[in-house]
Model the fold of this input.
Amino acid sequence: MLAAAPARAEPLVADLSRHLVEITAGFVGADVLLYGAIEGDGDVVVVLRGPKTVEVVRQKVRLGGIWVNGPSVRFREVPAFYLVASSRPAAELKLDPLVTGQYEIGLESLKIEAAGERDPRRIAEFRAALVRLKQENGLYSSDWGRVGFLGTRLFSTHILFPANVPTGSYTVSVFLVRNGEIVGAQTTPLVVSKAGVGAEVYDFAHDLPALYGIIAVLVALAAGWLANAAFRKV
Amino acid sequence: MQIYLPIAEVSVNIIWILGLGGMVGYLSGMFGVGGGFLMTPLLIFSGIPSPVAVGTEANQIVAASVSGVLAHLKRGNVDIKMGLVLVAGGFLGSSFGVWLFTILRGIGQIDLVIRLSYVVFLAVIGWLMLFESAGAIFRRRRQQARRKLHHHLWVHGLPFKMRFRRSKLYISALLPLLIGFFVGVLAAIMGVGGGFIMVPAMIYLLGMPTAVVVGTSLFQIIFVTANVTLLQAYQNQTVDVMLALLLMTSAVIGAQLGVKAGTRLRGEETRGLLGLLVLAVGGKLAYDLVSHPGELYTLGFTAGGHRWGGRGRRGGVGRARWRRRWR
Done:
């Protein structure tokens, strides 16, 4: 330990074991360690947010005996990935709803805007479906009480990214909560990107789609010709 | 062993995909069918989003058809002129099909249309195969074979007559154009070559000699599926070359083994079995459409976004369905 702690110590410091998650051909998910230390007592809340996207939620309706996509609601500013974790159950943190709303702490506090839909009942219904589907896909999760303390100052938690983790820029916000109030905060960036051959294929397909199509056809033509040549001799 | 497919944006088991390609290739070699109508639904069942399954399967069929047509060309079993007329219709049809595909995807109904098309066509083909094989078994028992040599139908009265020397036909070009168009639409929407429609149509509607039918249909399929691949890649970014390559290699090997096995066994009974398999796949798709879905909501493709999936989002019906099943 430092012999003389600085007079105005940071109440909270935190960092990630790595700031880049690369999706390669064999990607099955990733485990990033979040660790840090707090000054004095209190609890830690971690909020991880992925890039914001637009999502359309569609409801299936029965039409002539078969289930088809019926009404839909479009949502803007939807985090592609969201995780909240803390060192204590949500109720025991005694956070003010205004505060949780402002910092988007908890799945119910996410600021998700419906675009072009006015009926609040329908928005609530489709929003709940959106959050539920994201949870089923492993993209949204809340894990109150998972952040562990080592002694009284050091904390750490494993952030598990599933294989279908969306690419983009993430922000990891760590809050120090004391007596129902946020007394310290730190935000760290995290990038999830495709890497290796897969990334190049994806970028190529989206940046030069015509050329990609031509090459796909040429590859198939060559493969067919090769197959014919190879098996003719047998 | 898992492999991440860059365009489909899902991790799949590489052994499973290779096995799938090999198995469908084996069946297609054995029965002389294209296999697209089995491969695409099986890919969808495996968790590949259906638009990607369709686009990628079109790409794979290009390879399968090339290797097939080369053998037929050498034996002179391709009516190039007829093939080109069919290709002309096929280009129009497949371009129209991809355009339709893009629109349906924007309004969130492409999954339904793909599945419905499969239910209808698999049911029809499955029953036809069953009846045909039953009929063949029946005929074999009665030791009689009869086959009409020539048809005279209303189609022979249509204008724009053309002479097709290789097929020994003098018929209107409109009919092969129309057949090509229809098959092109199917290729775009369903990710199939369409041989299962074209071959009977060429025999019964056009009256082409059986010897040139398969080679000529393969000739058309190459161009049409190449056009579908190109347009799907360009407009929808739904062609996964990684997946296509895996399927191509395994299907080619499977097909060669299938051809060998096919020459040894008696056709009718196994054709009946294939008919049953086709009906089973169609039945599974139909069941999924009519049974109450466990989850009434789906995350859909966003019509405004140009990208398939877009950066940072994925999902679609196929994926959600798949995850639910394996959880």
Remarks:
- Chain A touches chain B through 66 residues (CB under 8 Å).
- Residues 12-194 of chain A form a domain with the Immunoglobulin-like fold (CATH 2.60.40.2550).
- The first strand of chain A starts at residue 12 and ends at 16.
- Chain A has two domains: 12-194, 195-234.
